Amino acid sequence: MSFDIPCNHPRYESLMIRQRLADGLKDGLVHETGLIAHGRGEAFDYLIGERTIDVAFAAEKVASAWLLLAKHPVISVNGNVAALVPDECVRLAKTIPAALEVNLFHRTEERIQRLVNVLQDHGAETVLGEHALEKIPGLDHARGICERQGIYAADVVLVPLEDGDRCQALKKMGKCVITIDLNPLSRTARTADITIVDNVCRAMGQMVKWVEELHSWKKKELEDLCRQWDNKGQLHAVVEFISKRLKDIK
Ligand code: PTJ
């Protein structure tokens, strides 16, 4: 860490997250545009009050249930996610259990290798992504390249911090797509089956807790929970929440 942030700083958490991304950039994990993406996320985090709002808490629960019901769940990891929540990614993958696959928009083999190493350093036994020989139909950029045993074969895919066209293409393949995106207006947020409007730094840890709790639920109870989820309605609730907060500012 190149900068000491005093823990009594009023924006300590937020500055620590920025620092993790800056370090991730230096370590070759984060792409430079990942910093811009984070800035957009921060703005929306500010609007929701930098906390997990009730709708997101519920979405995290349903997403966890969906991952538990899946036959072949996969967690897709990009540069920002590896820099911010490597430990949570590995814990979530082990608790479900699910496969981890590194998948990059700005793909280089060197970055793939670095991300695989980071996840392994945090305890992952197997990390997919290096032997990506399949292509998601309709996606021309590198994000469409994936592993046959991983995202290609998955029935449920968790794609935190995503760009919209892969989400759409995965859905066209018949997969259930769960995303974590602070922007409730993004194409990804609008296309996914379950959108968690929360900071990935809060959401992933909360999902580990939900998965641990939901392990004792019966299959039918999990199915009922998933069936009730109305993603469009919940996104509307997030926008309402933000609008109300803005209106209430004196
Ligand atoms: O590592 P790579 O090469 O795969 O590239 C990753 C980035 C993030 C650069 C790439 O996926 C990208 O450009 O993403 P977008 O299209 O900018 O979308 C990122 C979305 O994530 C935006 O809607 C942001 O609001 C949201 N976001 C950013 N930071 C966070 C976030 N959502 C949750 N938690 C965050 N910390």
- Rg, Å, rounded: 17 Å
For the record, the CATH class is Alpha Beta
Largest beta-sheet details = 5 strands, parallel
Strand numbers in spatial order across the main sheet: 2-1-5-6-7
Mean pLDDT: 95
Stretches where pLDDT falls below 50 for ≥5 residues?
Answer: none
CATH homologous superfamily (4th level) name: Phosphopantoate/pantothenate synthetase
> Count of helices?
11
- Shape label: globular
Q: How many beta-strand elements?
A: 7
Termini Cα gap: 39 Å
* Structural class based on helices, strands and sheet pairing: alpha/beta
Strand content: 5-15%
Counted up, domains total 1
Succession of helices and strands: HHHEHHEHEEEHEHEHHH
State the CATH architecture: 3-Layer(aba) Sandwich
| CATH topology category name | Rossmann fold
What's the helical proportion of residues? 40-55%
Which hetero ligands occur in this complex? ligand PTJ
How does this model look, in words?
The protein is an alpha/beta fold and 250 residues long. The protein has one domain (54-248): Rossmann fold. Helix content is 53%, strand content 10%. It contains eleven helices and seven strands. The protein has helices spanning 12-26, 32-48, 54-69, 79-84, 86-95, 109-121, 164-172, 187-191, 200-214, 219-227, 231-248; strands spanning 73-77, 99-102, 134-135, 145-146, 156-160, 176-180, 194-196. It has a five-stranded parallel β-sheet, sandwiched between helices. It has a two-stranded antiparallel sheet with strand order 3-4. Helix 7 links the parallel strand 5 (156-160) and strand 6 (176-180). Helix 1 packs antiparallel against helix 2 (32-48) and helix 5 packs parallel to helix 9. The longest helix is centred in the last third of the chain and has 18 residues, at 231-248. It binds ligand PTJ. Ligand PTJ binds at residues 31, 33-34, 37-38, 40-41, 44, 78-80, 104-106, 161, 163, 180-183, 186, 199-201.
